[in-house]
Amino acid sequence: MKLSGSKRLSQLGSAIFSEVAEWKREVMNQGVDVIDLGIGSPDLPPSERIIEAITQAVRNPSLYGYPSSEGSLTFRETVARWYQYRFGVELDPTSEILTLMGSQDGLAHLALSLCDPGDIAIVPDPGYPIYSASLVLAGVEPYLLPLRAENDFLPKLEDIPADVAAKAKFILLNYPSNPLSAVADRAFFEHLVAYAKKQDLLVIHDLAYSEMAFDGYRPMSILEVDGAKEVAVEFHSLSKSFNMAGCRIAFLTGNADAVKALKTLKSNIDYGVFQAIQAAGVAALEEDMESDHSVAGVYERRRNVFLEALAQEGWNITPPKATMFIWAPIPRGWTSRQISREMLYHAGVVAIPGDAFGAEGEGFVRIALVQEESRLLEAAKRIGKWLRTIE
């Protein structure tokens, strides 16, 4: 019996990510000290308080039964308090919050819970790969919304064709953005909510990077906009903000009907997040409310050190206001894939080609600030030395 996988599998993921992984293996096999600035996985551990909460919880024998698929009420109540503290948004823990095994879990399944095969959904280009992959799984047709530098990587909603807007079930956006590091202000979110109400369209906002902002900038929640809960839901994750990527805990907030739809689907396919991890999530959010704990300072310093060093090497990049990523325009005469490959083979530095995130990403590379400052300085020196050989 020969199995090659479903047709859907062939449409999932970007071949570019696989190529970069293969390049990295080849270079490492040659004995090169590779500095990996590719995948956005935090390189720091959670706080001692979070680790202690996990340690205590895993020793509690009562927590080893099946957890609730919607998450413990304690965790959801803590999320509600944190949203009030951080954004001034009131949420009902019983109907407007759903616990998830990471935001990717929710993003992967939301289209399945809201759409039927053949429906249309509007997703950004460039965008985080799961946005489009989730539509493949659900049999939903994507409308790719271009995000371009000349518009500060914000969408021109008025350019969405009327027939697409009329048929689409939802529009998905992400600010602060992965991979773009772009940000949006209140005026944009107000315009987006008004547009969604006019078009009878659900807004899905991915806010995974709200706590990773710099230079005094404070990202907002779309739910701060009056009436937003009528048309919007928002994903949030503890992965980046609290260095808990491996714990797999996140949550969906907002429109009760959309939350209920995903809750119904999730109750049929999994049993939720291990309760010890939820206890750690409670500790993380409580610590933040008590001490305004933030990882932003770490990444702001890394951003400054890395971009200053690159500038000294002749590669000037506008500093982003948020996220752990640098969305870097590449020199003329190169494609994103070419420069990423050559940078790895000749400088030993991994970056992701921009077109891994969609066709509109051509002309850029994404660099993740997931190494300590000394390694970032070394990466900048290597890149500069290589760039001088090709001038």
UniProtKB/TrEMBL annotation:
Enzyme class: transferase
InterPro entries with a match to the protein in the record: Aminotransferase_I/II_large, LL-DAP_aminotransferase, NHTrfase_class1_PyrdxlP-BS, PyrdxlP-dep_Trfase, PyrdxlP-dep_Trfase_major, PyrdxlP-dep_Trfase_small
Keyword check for Electron transport: no
Sorted UniProt keywords: Aminotransferase, Transferase
EC number(s) per entry: 2.6.1.-
SUPFAM superfamilies: PLP-dependent transferases
GO molecular function terms listed in the Swiss-Prot or TrEMBL record: pyridoxal phosphate binding; transaminase activity
PROSITE patterns with a match to the protein in the record: AA_TRANSFER_CLASS_1
Needed cofactors: pyridoxal 5'-phosphate
Record domain Aminotransferase class I/classII large: where: 33-383
Similarity comment: family membership: Belongs to the class-I pyridoxal-phosphate-dependent aminotransferase family.
Name this polypeptide is given: Aminotransferase
Organism: Paenibacillus sp. SYP-B3998
